[in-house]
Write a structure and sequence with these properties.
Structural class: mainly alpha
Number of strands: 0
Helix content: over 70%
Order of helices and strands: HHH
Amino acid sequence: MLNKDTEEPSMIDHLYRAKEKQMAYVLHYDFGYTKSSIATLMKISPQQMGLWVKEVRYEVQIHQLNQELDRIKQN
């Protein structure tokens, strides 16, 4: 759904896409599906799928590092 004034994706589109990326990450890392099979399922290119998985992997790493920093700060 595009914002009529700016022709940019709406916040809902952005959130939906973020959930799709997270689902792809889980399917690949937790359930062992190949990036190619997930790309076919989600109707995107394997290259795009690789970028999605990499992006979410970085987000997970950042989250884990932030948690570690919080634990260190508490001591």
